[in-house]
Design brief:
alpha+beta, 6 helices, five-stranded antiparallel sheet, 31% strand
Length: 228
């Protein structure tokens, strides 16, 4: 999955083919073996006896090949990364902004940890408010993070930077925004709900947000609903 040249992978492919054969994944095994043979012939290398033996077996002759086993690799990547990066602690972050063109999202964990990372390799479609369990490391001298494992979670209580607040919505006369306790609720969020259908209480999901003008942290509502 790392894109190495095939000539560096022939020994690994041979071990992998053996595992695939044990699991009776014959089409995938044949795809690996064909790649081994082509690579060795291209480099004028000897073909190992075990590989030649496989090509004479009945399962090999009746199996089909694919252009590559890349889909299989990608299906196993998450498990592999969990093993490789298991010593890096899991952290819980919430998405604060998504740039879909560049496949980059901004996140916040708490008042001390926030930044951005590319999400393209994870095959996700994040939205603001999503909470992810991640293993990550900061790139020195920037707000960019390298993320090694990423899993979406509904356990928002594990993330310090998102909360649900229920209370009375306070809107001053002539204003197009309001507050629920210490949570700022902007016009764009208020426009998503018909407040006349609610009783006196509403619930809002809020994320930790840094106000650059005031240079301080606060809470910003991202979703509002009538309280149950």
């Amino acid at each position: 999955s790392l894109g190495r040249d095939d000539k560096y992978l022939v020994s690994l492919r041979e071990k992998y083919a053996e595992l695939l054969i044990e699991r009776k994944m014959f089409n995938e095994a044949k795809t690996e073996i064909v790649n081994i043979i082509e690579t060795r012939k291209k480099n004028d290398w000897k073909i190992p006896p075990q590989v030649l033996k496989w090509t004479g077996e009945s399962w090999y002759k009746s199996s089909q090949t694919s252009k590559s086993n890349r889909r299989l690799y990608l299906n196993q990547t998450k498990k592999a990364e969990e093993l490789v990066f298991g010593d890096i602690p899991v952290e819980y972050v919430v998405v604060t902004y998504v740039n879909r063109d560049k496949k980059i999202l901004n996140f916040v964990k708490n008042k001390e940890v926030s930044g951005f990372f590319k999400y393209s390799k994870f095959g996700i479609k994040p939205v603001v408010g999503n909470v992810f369990a991640v293993r990550m490391q900061k790139v020195e001298g920037s707000q960019k993070y390298n993320v090694y494992t990423l899993n979406k979670t509904d356990e928002i209580e594990k993330c310090e930077a998102i909360k649900k607040v229920t209370g009375e919505l306070r809107i001053k006369e002539g204003r197009n925004f309001g507050f629920i306790e210490d949570v700022f609720v902007g016009e764009n969020v208020l426009n998503t709900i018909d407040l006349s259908r609610c009783n006196s209480l509403v619930s809002v999901y809020a994320i930790l947000s840094f106000n650059k003008k005031k240079e301080q942290w606060g809470w910003k509502g991202i979703y509002i609903q009538c309280a149950d």
